[in-house]
Design goal:
Blueprint lengths: L2 H21 L3 H29 L6 H22 L8 H26 L5 H20 L18
Helix pairs in contact: 1-2, 1-4, 1-5, 2-3, 2-5, 3-4
The chain binds fe (ii) ion.
Length: 160
């Protein structure tokens, strides 16, 4: 799968999970869904920051890429706050709503970024990059990558 199609499908997947979280009522179901959402976002941010963004960090995309990396940092701060709470805490649902809003904005911003970066790389390279990203994502998801998030709250990742 090419890199951009992979990232877009992960965006859709996480939006579906947020929809399920909205409908969940029991603390157990909410916790299970939060864990999957936080793991997916942590692994998604990692493959973007380590593989995708550096591969397309050229020309007039650099400002947008710096912005999305800052968005990742804000998302990681929220995930770290949520990790410290139980789902029955009254702050949990409002913070999840905030996270969902941030992800919606991130997905919108990346939709236009993806449209312009698709032209940057030949199809073969996009496919190879997608394979590497999908492999890294699967390896990360074998653990519980959400637990690495609180250690990533320093300055946003430097792309160059
Ligand atoms: Fe993304």
């Amino acid at each position: 799968m090419d890199a951009i199609t992979l990232l877009e499908s992960q965006h859709e997947e996480v939006e579906l999970l947020f929809g399920k979280f909205d409908k969940a009522r029991s603390p157990y179901a909410k916790q299970a869904l939060f864990n999957v959402i936080a793991d997916s976002l942590a692994a998604h941010a990692a493959i973007e920051e380590r593989l995708f963004y550096p591969a397309v960090y050229v020309g007039n995309h650099t400002d947008d890429l710096r912005s999305v990396v800052e968005e990742h940092l804000a998302m990681k701060r929220l995930i770290a706050d949520l990790l410290a709470l139980t789902t029955s805490d009254p702050k949990f649902d409002p913070l999840m709503k905030l996270l969902q809003d941030q992800i919606d904005r991130h997905v919108d911003r990346e939709a236009s970024l993806f449209a312009s970066t698709r032209k940057l790389l030949p199809k073969r390279e996009l496919e190879a990059l997608g394979d590497a990203m999908s492999g890294m994502f699967d390896r990360l998801m074998e653990g519980a990558p959400r637990h690495g998030v609180p250690a990533e709250l320093g300055p946003a990742v430097q792309l160059s």
